[in-house]
Design the sequence.
């Protein structure tokens, strides 16, 4: 059973975690990650776009000119789509782009994306991640110790920590998320994942992304 190292804030190895074959030995195609990311983007779309059809534009009601003897084309309304300022034919209307992926697919995508990060050495597991007082300087020091300086980093916490959040919020390319809110899109959007050992242990209990 493979192992991964647990580190402290000074990048010292303080322990190891055995990787469960049920979670970290899944052979899945990368297409499942793409499927989950597309689903995430679709669910984020507001779908509020709208165009005015013939029945919504102003005007109409009166025939622009008489039917015959004007030398013009026959017209019954200035709201016609062929007129400037007329209605739009088959234009976009408000709709919901969201759809659901099966839970098993969401879970498989999340684990697969995490496994790829793990195999590429893009995951750092911390034994503890706490800061006494919110200080951006201290957070930058921790990143420097862990070799994360200059990289986009997603910090995955097992519970909310205001000191960590306030210390990291001014760092470019750094975001913080609770494990329960983690999804495949988050994992694929950052160079590195910084995760607490408590959150790492929860991967075996993932229900959905």
Sequence:
């Amino acid at each position: 059973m493979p192992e991964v190292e647990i580190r402290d804030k000074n990048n010292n190895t303080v322990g190891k975690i055995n990787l469960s074959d049920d979670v970290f030995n899944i052979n899945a195609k990368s297409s499942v990650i793409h499927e989950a990311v597309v689903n995430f983007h679709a669910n984020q779309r507001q779908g509020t776009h709208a165009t005015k059809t013939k029945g919504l534009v102003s005007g109409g009601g009166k025939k622009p000119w008489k039917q015959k003897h004007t030398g013009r084309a026959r017209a019954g309304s200035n709201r016609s789509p062929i007129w400037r300022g007329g209605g739009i034919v088959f234009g976009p209307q408000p709709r919901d782009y969201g759809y659901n992926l099966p839970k098993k697919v969401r879970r498989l995508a999340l684990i697969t994306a995490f496994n790829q990060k793990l195999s590429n050495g893009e995951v750092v597991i911390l034994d503890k991640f706490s800061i006494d007082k919110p200080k951006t300087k201290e957070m930058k020091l921790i990143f420097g110790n862990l070799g994360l300086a200059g990289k986009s980093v997603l910090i995955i916490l097992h519970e909310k920590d205001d000191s960590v959040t306030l210390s990291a919020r001014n760092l470019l390319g750094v975001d913080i998320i609770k494990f329960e809110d983690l999804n495949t899109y988050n994992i694929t959007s950052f160079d590195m994942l910084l995760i607490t050992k408590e959150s790492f242990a929860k991967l075996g209990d993932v229900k959905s992304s």
